[in-house]
Each structure stands twice: as structure tokens, then as C-alpha cells.
Amino acid sequence: MTTAESGSLLAESVYRTLVDQIFEGALPPGAPLSVPALAARLDVSRSPVRESVQRLIHEGLAVHVPHAGARVLQLDEDAVRDVLAVREALDGLAAQEAARRASADDVAGLLELVERQADLLEEPTDPLRDARLDVELHTRVREVSGNRPLADALRRLDAQAHLYTSGMWAEESNRRIAVVEHRRIADAVAAGDADGARRAASAHVAAISVRMRRWRMSH
Amino acid sequence: MTTAESGSLLAESVYRTLVDQIFEGALPPGAPLSVPALAARLDVSRSPVRESVQRLIHEGLAVHVPHAGARVLQLDEDAVRDVLAVREALDGLAAQEAARRASADDVAGLLELVERQADLLEEPTDPLRDARLDVELHTRVREVSGNRPLADALRRLDAQAHLYTSGMWAEESNRRIAVVEHRRIADAVAAGDADGARRAASAHVAAISVRMRRWRMSH
DNA sequence: ACGGGCGGTATTACATGCAATACCCCGGTG
DNA sequence: CACCGGGGTATTGCATGTAATACCGCCCGT
Q1: pTM of the model
Q2: Which of A50, A88, A90, B22 has its CA 20 to 30 A from that of A162?
Q3: Domains in chain B, CATH or no CATH each
Q4: Using the beta-carbon criterion (under 8 Å), do A85 and B152 form an inter-chain contact?
Q5: Residue of A nearest to B50 (CA)
Q6: pLDDT tier at B7 (50, 70, 90 boundaries)?
Q7: What is the 3-state secondary structure (H, E, C) of A98-122?
Q8: Contacting residues of A for B7, CB less than 8 Å apart
């Protein structure tokens, strides 16, 4: 994170609002991000809004079009596949390093997250909540890996991919498969099996890629 | 690139100036980046400077310290190793995809760059120039890979690592080894040998990591 | 009817004003 | 001599002013 500091930073709260709206669909891919319009809508000046929009661009959630402001990122299928290809390599690396360095507490926290996700299978679907928990789980693994540049790189990629994979959480089968695959990763990390963790994590992302393509075709 | 557009964007030129000064050592790691001070020194208003500094932060070349502005990134040895570990995975992936997709022109351009680097061995050392050519070479491979998210992620990592590896170009042996390793990568890409390219590129980064550690110890 | 040029409009990019706030040095005190 | 508190100072963060510029729809000429 750049700063985090929960201090009442206006730009920070604007940023979070925009991110939330993007993920909730209020700002769909391709939507224009006009600084004056957003400033009026959120009732703040243009400065924090401009800063937030530029941050979105840097984080890869928006693109800057030369003379027409910014727009929410719009990926075609190939681009999503590219993102997932990178994640395949990096999440594998993260899991591998996590398996080497995980403390007992780390392992406990990880397993607990997986169980929480498993418990949610009994409840009705809430795609947004499920997607968030999934992000948290992956994020945890990356934190445990202790490699901050790695975690930073993955955070960006995640944000982009989740614009296009979050819808999949609505489907029961995908939720079940995800839990199984997550458990495999967590177990390997718990066992200190670095290579197994790497393979499990890479396979998980690869499987997401396949599922996504199928899901998109059936739409 | 994010915007690039040749328009005379003040913020863009300020950004480039700052990056140059960072890599040339005028702004060494840990140096404070005071917005008003830089604005006065560069004779522009604070707006483009503020924007540029925030961009540096997002790109990973500077860190924001809660109540004391920003400072040029300062990595310890472990962090550099982490960065290189990520690059090992990603540059391998980039070379692999490049080998699959390279056109005849791509290959020609790549080989020409390597030869240019080889020719430079005959001339006296110019660390800054050599480092730039090295970046260009790696960047070219990533462009050829056609995976933009991958190239973007690597660009950031490169920037960070180069703060700490650029000094190595002063040494003759390192320059020679680099050319050899680059040629291996380029040859594999030219031959369409995806797996060989991946291994060559990963090995190259791993070797950089080893050389860097040795170079740092000898100081 | 259709193509080309033109003004209205909204936007960006930059400059600057302003208040709040945290740091630092320095002098005073136990 | 060590420690603590207060004022000065510089900085951030936000708001707003302003010029240049590119786009869009409309009107006019052919």
C-alpha cells in the first residue's frame, strides 16, 4: 500500500468509493471517468478526484485516453488470458515462498480462511462477498510469502482480472471447485511442501482461466 | 506506455527529469522529494511536480512517508533479491511467449540489439548507456511477448532493481557475461524454442542476482 | 441531399491560495 | 547535564481560478 494510514484522507476515501463502484458494476468497463462530474457527484473538489483517477490508471483499473479523460478498464478476452497467465506464474511463486516461510500462525490463519469459505457454501450466493473473500485468501498467501514486490505486482493483476471473473462466483459449481483448490494450496503450504504449493497455486489459476473461458462462451 | 503522446506535457517531462536524476545518482536512494523544493528548482508550479512524485510512488521508485513527503526508494539486500526472484519468473515467462510469437522482424530487431551491445564491449565503459541498452533489450523481449500486463509488471520491477544493479555495468566481466546470456535468450527466441528461451531468461536473471550479491559484498 | 467548416461546450492541464498539521530546534527547568 | 515544552517553519492536502485545446452538433454552401 502507498500509505494506508486510516487518517481521513479525502483522496483515499474517494479512491475506495470509485473502486467499490467499479467492482459493484455502478461504473462498468468503458464508463467515462470525468473529473468534474465525479467531483460534483461526490461533493468534493476536483483535486482528490483527479488524484484518485490517476491512481486508478496507475493501478491498471482505468485507462487514460489522450484527449477524453479516463475510462474504466475494458479488457478483451485475450487480455484477460494474458493477465491470468502472469498470475499463474506469480501466484505459483507466492505459494512456493509461502510454503517455505509460513509460521504456525500463518498456517492457522490460512486454513481458517479456507474453512470460512467452505462454510459459505451452505449459504445462498453473494457474489460480491464471495469475490472479496477470494481476494483476501489470495492476498494472505502473498503476504505470507514475505515478498512485497511480488504481492504488489499481484495486487494490480488481481484488480484487473477480478473485473472479469467476479461474475463467476454466482455459479455453485465454481464456488465448490474454488474451495477444493484453495484447500489444496493451503494444505501444501501447511505441510511446507514448496513445490506442491507452487503447482497447486499455478493449477488453480490455470483452472480459473479455463473456467472463465467456458463461462464466457456460455455466458 | 500510460500516455506517452508526444504532446508537451509538463508533468511528463518533470517525471522524466526526476527519473533521470534518480538513475544518474543526483537523487540517491533515501533523498527527500519535497514538492515545493522541486517545483522551485525545476521552475514549474507544484501541480505537475506533485503529480510526478505520486507517479514515482505508484511506479515503485519512491515511497511515501506519512507526514514527511516522499523519498527515493531505498531497498535492502533482501528486497532486491525479492524483486529479482519475481523477475526470474516473469522474464522467463516473457521469453517463453516471445519465442512463440516472434515475427521475423521481431527476431531481427532483437538480434541487432544484442550485436549492438556486443559492439559496445570494444568501447570504454559508459555504465549509464550500457544500463539503458540493457533495459531496452529486456523491454524488447517483453514487447515481443505481446503480453502487456506482463510487460507493465516487469517495467516496474526493472525500475526498482536497476537502482541497485546499474553500478555493476562498470565491470568488464559483467558486461561480457551479460552479452553471452542475452545472446542465448535471443537465439532461443529466434529458434522458436519456447522452453529454452524461458530457461535462458530465468537463468540470466538468477545469474544477475548472484552477481549482484557478490558485487555488493566486495562492494 | 451531403460534405466541410465553425462555434459552443466540456475537458484537461497547470497555477496558485489556504488551512491544518507535524517536525525541529532552542531555550528553560529540575 | 539531561529532559521537556513551545514557537517557528515547512510540508501536505484540498480548493479553486484560468487558459488552451479537442470534440460535437449544426449550419451553410454546393
Answers
A1: 0.89
A2: A50
A3: 3-72 (1.10.10.10), 77-217 (1.20.120.530)
A4: no
A5: A51
A6: low
A7: HHHHCCHHHHHHHHHHHHHHHHHCC
A8: 66
